[in-house]
Amino acid sequence: MTKPHNMKTRITIMAALLMLAIAAHAQSGKQESANRILVAYLSWGGNTQHVAEYIARQTGGTLFRIEPAKPYPTEYKPCTEVAKQEKEEGARPAIKNRVADWDQYDTVFIGCPVWWWTAPMIINTFAESYDFKGKTVVPFCTYASTYRDETLARIAELTPAANHLKGFGAVDRNTEAIAQWLKDIKVIK
């Protein structure tokens, strides 16, 4: 027969193990849901990257920087000239890298700056490189003054097989309203 003291110790150990198992399961659930969100973005001057990083922090999403195989010029005017030429030619600039484990993501945020009244042509390349069927796309952009709505609409047009949530436009690096937007579209609580 087991002594009462030993039984109490065993019950305490079993309870502690059960609590550890529950905590581990809860943590793996958080990691699993965090891996279901991808925040893909193109950033030239750092504004869109700042917004993308904020979205990733709020949602637990995985960041993916859309990088051109041939980098855009670092000076403003030459970059705008390249962007204009790409738009006029309907170019599809090559992307340097690919999203690992694409199928694990349910929700894909796609963000970019507004270039020549719309999304940069490399966003077309990105959208055409993956199957969006069954995914939810959430567009976002950064802009100086106008063409936010046109850019958000273009990202949705490029991913017709996806479901779409209301997009967001940030002026420069302004992240003030992002948390509320994420709550409104029910991505975070």
Overall number of strands: 6
Distance between the termini: 52 Å
Number of helices: 6
**Estimated share of beta-strand residues:** 15-25%
Look at the helices and sheets and give the structural class. Answer: alpha/beta
Task: Specify the biggest β-sheet.
Answer: 6 strands, parallel
- Secondary structure: helix percent: 40-55%
Oligomer: single chain
Radius of gyration of CA atoms, rounded to a whole number:
22 Å
Estimate the global geometry from the Cα principal axes: globular
pLDDT < 50 stretches: 14-35
| pLDDT averaged over residues | 87
Structure in words:
Strands 1, 2, 3, 4, 5 and 6 form a 6-stranded parallel sheet that branches. The protein has helices at 4-34, 47-59, 76-89, 121-128, 148-158, 178-184; strands at 37-41, 62-65, 107-113, 136-143, 163-164, 168-171. Helix 5 (148-158) links the parallel strand 4 and strand 5 (163-164). It is α/β, with parallel strands linked by helices and 189 residues long. The N and C termini lie far apart (52 Å). 44% of the residues lie in helices and 16% in strands. Mean pLDDT is 87; it is low at 14-35. The longest helix has 31 residues, at 4-34.
